[in-house]
Specification:
The complex is a heterodimer. In chain A, about 35% of the residues lie in helices and about 30% in strands. By secondary structure, chain A is of the alpha+beta class. In chain A, the strands form 4 sheets. A 5-stranded antiparallel beta sheet of chain A has the order 4-5-10-6-7. In chain A, strand 6 and strand 7 form a beta hairpin. In chain A, helix 7 crosses helix 8 and helix 11 packs antiparallel against helix 12. The longest helix of chain A is centred in the C-terminal third of the chain and has 20 residues. Chain A is globular, with a radius of gyration of 19 Å. In chain A, about 45% of the residues are buried. Chain B is built from 19 helices and 30 strands. By secondary structure, chain B is an alpha+beta fold. In chain B, about 25% of the residues lie in helices and about 25% in strands. In chain B, helix 10 crosses helix 11 and helix 10 packs parallel to helix 18. Chain B has a 7-stranded mixed beta sheet with strand order 3-5-1-13-10-11-12, with helices on both faces. Chain B is globular. Classes of the chains: A alpha+beta, B alpha+beta. Chains A and B meet through helix 12 of A and helix 4 and helix 19 of B.
């Protein structure tokens, strides 16, 4: 398990990183936190000729607010997201996910942008982007391009980012102060990728009614799944049965090594029920 | 001097026996000063990497290596035929396992690969990375052959035979019968029956298998630095198969990062590394990576067991009938063989109970998966799960409490010596005392009350018990009588140097579990010196006494007794010299704290450093005929009993979420009797570590294959080991019944935790599921399997 030989470049600016990538195309890869890429290299499942190390590019780091938008630099570490008071106040769903994401050592190095760019279907950050209607900002030689989260995730490790573009930041709308976020996951062991995960958020208008409900499942398909058919019965007066029926009809989970599609569908229902109970109480 | 009758020689103020002293090697390891094989760098050292078969079964039609040889840094490329010319193949059978058969096995596959991961080509390069770069340039023309995957179908006439020369896929079978089981079943008040599965899993060592072989042509000596449990056994193996005299092979085993039985076997890639070193005349290193570990480290516990138990109206177990089927991969593993695990199931089922009528059969078959062999607690967790699962079923059928049925059947504490229905001889066990100790620890009535109260709130908790026996301190009856050159004897040499410090060399080995600590304690106690005056040397076939090493829980019981006898002999020699110097009778003297004292008064007479100074530097001042040997060696082999058995009981307390199928471990208790406890801290950690490995098998660990014999679980993301965050507190209690066969009285403690944990968890889950009339018997008990048992999701697909 030694990576195939590769060359290594450490650009001093985003522009230089993008230029390097454009020059080398598919034979080059960006290196962010390395928590997914390095094992892949060591197992020789991928063998890029050039690694472009983004670490240290301060342009890509940091969390800031501009008007009603929170900008999270692609290189922001998962640990920093968990520690951000700004995010806790304005986009609390992110903080609700932290404890589910792997282990402290991994959270110290893993980056927000790296996770979104990789688009692992069982990961939390892509699911958050979808739930929060985030905008993913990528940059190529031609400049910046904004992609809505619902258009960004296109399949297993597949996104709308062009191969030569660098994911530079994620923009998240400031959430209303009465939004109630819930992140639930079922795992065999703490910190594992979820068998099934659900992110749910809504404004509790009255004791039995919700505004702006959002429900995203992950770990069930080739990408995070947000279905309007499941959210509709939760808008206004909540119909849990309506949501579960919609889940039954429209969510088609894929099985994994240890769980059948039927098991995953069952667990998705259990989690949705529990998430709504938390939001409503 | 007053004599307190309750005190033994081990209770003296000077004794280190029974004390939780820190291990001498712990600081060295945490400071990063350990010397694992991969830490060693030798001049001109080369690295080897292996092309491994991507097929579970394939003919090797041709191998093209020219392009690989041209790659930068590559020194040489070896095929199976190249190494077959310099290495005699092995066949892993033992005479006492009648009928066991296997096929000749080579270091690299010759003509045919028989499991995914079998080494086919070896590439030697000046770095591991360069060797791996060249792997992709070897072209092997494989013609896939039909695979044998399912053990249930291995003996069907329609199933292809893996080794045509053997005639069929049956490796071994054994039937044991005692009493009249058929009559007992016919007369039974109740008969319960169930089929159990224990999942194929493996021992995941922090340090992977590692070897650095260095053949020195000038000295005509092969030195092998090896992460192993049995240096002397491996010395014999390398000598025999590479055509060297045993004396020309030196095996050195420094620090080992866990072994668990994984590192007590002969691995083709390790023999290949040694053979390559002999051919090339230079040091060659191989460190298995995690993928290689999953596809080549031995697997274990791939069993399907159907069991029946008969009970009378009073809850007495009147008969037990066991039908065990296990698949071991394409070869029996050398030299201990892969029939031992099934054989242990036959030996151990029902062994904790007073049982007369017993029938057990094991059927061991070949298949195209990674070979299986002995892993921590060989056969014990299987036998315990089946026995204790059936006991709980019987209790349920009788409407009896699971503790009560056990109390009515466990062999009485005053019944020893006792011979079990399978013929195992027990010198002295403490089932009832252990059970009583455990019940006091767990506060059983309170636990049941809490369970009942929570059930009303929709919280489903379960309490599961598992009693067990464990085989330790094996005599030559384990391997020697079958013809294996695996020592049942171990020795210890202790030397006193001029400053009064001691060096102890022992044949048992340090695997990270604390052997060096307990040997130092025993030696310090036996001679009478401060612990810090003792240095222990293990793991070098040229400097330590010949021995078996560390396996089957023999380190403390056998190696420890050799150390004690050697220490007492050295003490006698020292006192002989001291008597001459002090003009006293040796029997009137003693040694305490590194000082010769007057036994009756405790008065200090002479420091050992002074005695050493005179013996070594001023021997002229001593009587000419005075013996002055400050070195002693003693050996120990168990002789009275084939094995020294231990016993224990475990309780698991857990909570099952019936909606998700997730079982959450809340607490785990163990009471075990390993005889004399030398270091309570180390024993407790052995028990806890063993329990955790058992919990891994019960809940997480599974080597999953597809229908083509491809292993899915080849990374730590897919093969789930138990993690600290998910483990319960494990409370450990002890009963001490020392073996009378040795002065030390120690039995083994390393496998008890693993032996009982899966059964305790299974019984606890089924206790939690009882209101739903649901039951699980197939390990690991995954959320999906629990949901299937509940009828929530359909059976099929995974599992």
């Amino acid at each position: 398990m030694k990576a195939a030989p590769f060359r290594y470049a450490k650009p001093s600016s985003v522009a230089e990183a993008i230029a390097l990538k454009a020059d080398h195309g598919d034979s080059a890869q960006f290196l962010a936190g390395g928590q997914s890429l390095l094992p892949v290299l060591n197992m020789r499942l991928d063998r890029p000729e050039l690694l472009i190390d983004l670490n240290g590019l301060s342009e890509l780091e940091g969390i800031s607010q501009e008007g009603s938008t929170i900008r999270v630099g692609a290189l922001t570490r998962t640990k920093a997201i968990g520690q951000s008071e700004l995010l806790a106040r304005q986009v609390p769903l992110l903080g609700a996910c932290i404890e589910h994401i792997a282990h402290p050592a991994i959270r110290t190095l893993a980056t927000f942008g790296g996770s979104v760019a990789l688009a692992d279907p069982a990961a939390e950050w892509p699911a958050c982007c979808l739930a929060l209607d985030a905008t993913i900002v990528v940059q190529g030689r031609a400049g910046e391009r904004e992609i809505a989260a619902r258009d960004f995730f296109q399949g297993l490790y597949a996104t709308a980012r062009d191969g030569n573009e660098l994911l530079v930041r994620i923009e998240l709308p400031v959430q209303p102060p009465d939004a109630r976020p819930v992140a639930l996951e079922l795992c065999r062991r703490r910190g594992d990728y979820a068998i099934v995960g659900v992110l749910a958020q809504a404004r509790a208008a009255r004791p039995d009614a919700l505004d702006d409900p959002r429900v995203v499942f992950f770990g069930v398909a080739d990408r995070p799944i947000r279905l309007p058919e499941i959210e509709a019965p939760l808008r206004g007066k909540v119909s849990l049965k309506g949501a579960l029926d919609a889940l039954d009809a429209f969510l088609e989970p894929q099985g994994d090594l240890y769980h059948s599609p039927a098991t995953k569908k069952h667990l998705a229902k259990v989690l949705l029920t529990r998430a709504l109970r938390q939001i409503l109480h | 001097m007053t004599h307190q009758p309750n005190l033994t020689a081990f209770d003296g103020p000077n004794s280190y026996i029974g004390k939780s002293v820190p291990r001498p090697n712990a600081l060295r390891l945490v400071e990063g000063r350990g010397q694992y094989v991969d830490d060693l760098q030798l001049p001109r050292m080369a690295h080897v990497a292996f092309v491994r078969s991507p097929h579970a079964h394939a003919e090797i039609r041709s191998i093209e290596t020219a392009a690989a040889r041209e790659m930068p840094g590559v020194l040489r490329v070896f095929t199976g035929l190249d190494l077959a010319a310099v290495c005699e193949p092995w066949v892993a059978v033992l005479a006492h396992l009648k009928g066991l058969k296997s096929a000749p096995q080579h270091p690299l596959a010759v003509a045919r690969a028989t499991w995914q991961g079998e080494a086919v080509v070896a590439i030697v390069a000046d770095s591991r990375a360069a060797a791996e770069d060249a792997l992709a340039h070897v072209v092997v023309d494989y013609a896939p052959l039909p695979v044998v995957v399912e053990m249930e179908a291995a003996l069907d006439p329609a199933t292809p035979v893996i080794h045509p020369d053997l005639g069929d896929n049956l490796a071994f079978t054994r039937l044991h019968e005692s009493g009249e089981p058929d009559r007992a079943f016919a007369d039974a008040y109740k008969v319960v029956e169930a089929t159990f599965h224990t999942a194929r899993h493996t021992g995941v060592c922090l340090e992977p298998r590692s070897i650095l072989a260095d053949y020195n042509r000038a000295e005509r000596q092969l030195t092998v630095y090896l992460s192993t449990q049995a240096p002397h056994m491996m010395q014999t193996v390398f000598a025999k198969h590479l055509g060297l005299p045993e004396g020309a092979v030196r095996v050195i085993c420094k620090d080992v990062g866990g072994s668990f039985g994984i590192k007590v076997h002969v691995y083709p890639d390790e023999v290949a590394t040694a053979a390559i070193s002999k051919v090339m005349g230079r040091p060659v290193k191989f460190i298995a990576d995690r993928f290689e570990s999953f596809v080549t480290d031995i697997h274990a516990r791939d069993h399907r067991i159907t069991g029946r138990m008969a009970v009378d109206a009073e809850g007495r177990i009147t008969a037990l009938d066991i039908d065990d089927l296990t698949a071991i991969g394409p070869y029996s593993v050398y030299p201990r063989t892969s029939a031992i695990e099934g054989n242990q199931v036959v030996n151990l089922c029902g062994g904790q109970y007073d049982l007369k009528n017993y029938r057990a059969r094991t059927t061991v078959v070949f298949q195209n998966k990674t070979p299986t062999c002995q892993y921590r607690a060989v056969g014990h967790p299987i036998a315990t799960a089946v026995t204790e699962g059936l006991v709980d079923l019987a209790a349920e059928a009788l409407g009896m409490d699971p503790v009560e049925i056990r109390r009515r059947n466990l062999i009485l504490d005053d019944a020893y010596p006792y011979t079990s229905a399978s013929g195992m001889k027990f010198e002295g066990l403490s089932h009832h005392k252990s059970l009583d100790t455990l019940l006091a620890m767990i506060d059983y009535p309170a636990l049941r009350a809490e369970q009942a109260q929570l059930r009303e709130q929709g919280v489903y908790r379960g309490i599961g018990f598992a009693t067990f026996i464990e085989l330790t301190n094996p005599s030559p009856f384990m391997y020697g009588i079958g013809g294996a050159r695996i020592s049942a004897m171990d020795g210890c040499t202790i030397r006193m140097d001029p400053d009064g410090s001691l060096v102890a060399m022992t044949g048992v080995t340090e695997q990270g579990q604390g052997t060096e600590a307990i040997v130092a304690q025993i030696v310090a106690h036996g001679v009478g010196v401060p612990l810090e005056c003792v240095r222990v040397i293990t793991g070098d076939t040229q400097t330590t006494p010949y021995g078996g090493g560390t396996w089957a829980c023999r380190g403390a019981g056998i190696g420890g007794e050799a150390a004690l006898q050697s220490a007492m002999a050295l003490k006698e020699s020292i006192l002989t010299v001291a008597g001459a110097m002090l003009q006293a009778k040796p029997e009137d003297l003693d040694i305490i704290g590194g000082e010769v004292i007057q036994r009756a008064t405790g008065a200090a007479r002479m420091k050992l450093s002074e005695l050493g100074r005179i013996v070594y530097f001023r021997g002229d001042t001593l009587p000419a005929d005075l013996p002055r040997e400050l070195v002693a060696t003693r050996h120990y082999t168990p002789k009275q009993y084939p094995f020294v058995f231990t016993n224990g009981i475990q309780t698991s307390y857990l909570e099952v979420d019936p909606q998700t199928g997730v079982a959450r471990l809340l607490k785990h208790w163990v009471v075990e009797d390993c005889g004399r406890v030398i270091n309570p801290l180390l024993v407790d950690e052995q028990i806890r570590g063993g329990v955790v490995q058992g919990l891994g098998g019960a809940l997480y660990e599974h080597c999953r294959y597809d229908q083509d014999g491809q292993l899915f679980t080849t990374s730590m993301a897919d093969y789930l080991v138990p993690m600290a965050a998910d483990m319960p507190d494990i409370v450990v209690g002890h009963v001490e019944t020392p073996t009378q066969e040795s002065a030390l009285g120690a039995k083994g403690a390393g496998e008890a935790g693993t032996a009982g944990a899966p059964a305790a968890v299974m019984n606890a889950i089924n206790d939690a599921l009882r209101p739903f009339n649901a039951r699980v018997t197939a390990q690991p008990f995954t959320p999906e399997r629990i949901l299937q048992a509940l009828g929530t999701v359909p059976v099929g697909h995974s599992g």
